[in-house]
Amino acid sequence: MKKILLMGIIALISALTIAACGNDNEGSNPHEGMDMDPGSEESMDMDHSGSADVPEGLIVQENPTYAVGTKAILETDHMEGMKGAEATIVGAYDTTAYAISYTPTTGGERVTNHKWVIHDEIKDAGEDTLELGTEVTIEADHMNGMDGATAEIDFAEQTTVYMVDYTSTTNGEEVTNHKWVTESELSPK
Question: Exposed (0-12), middle (13-18) or buried (19+): which is 151, by Cβ within 10 Å?
Answer without folding.
Answer: buried
